[in-house]
Amino acid sequence: MLGFIKRIAFSKLRNAIIRLLCYAEAAFRTEIKRRQLAEAAEKRQMEASSRGIKNIYSVEQKKKKQEEIEKRMAASGPGGEGGLRWQVG
């Protein structure tokens, strides 16, 4: 009878240890996943911040063109259209 009780106690102890190890492994995997997601987010943020204006000349030309269009529209004044204007750009 005592041997039977020892086997049951050992079995319960073994099962408890297995559950504990499974929980620890799951927590470890979760931590790894969290760290990977954080690193990926940081990498995306660095890539986004390193992107700049690649063609400054093109941006300046677009800005000048937009200013010219706005000057022409301001010079023409509000017409019979109720002051509504199309916006280009």
TrEMBL record:
Pfam name, any one: SVIP
Q: Which domain of life is it from?
A: Eukaryota
- Biological process GO terms, please? negative regulation of ERAD pathway; negative regulation of retrograde protein transport, ER to cytosol; negative regulation of VCP-NPL4-UFD1 AAA ATPase complex assembly; positive regulation of autophagy
Q: Name one GO cellular component term.
A: endoplasmic reticulum membrane
Q: Which UniProt keywords apply?
A: Lipoprotein, Myristate, Palmitate
- Region Disordered: start-end pairs: 63-89
Protein name (Swiss-Prot/TrEMBL): Small VCP interacting protein
The scientific name of the source species is Gallus gallus
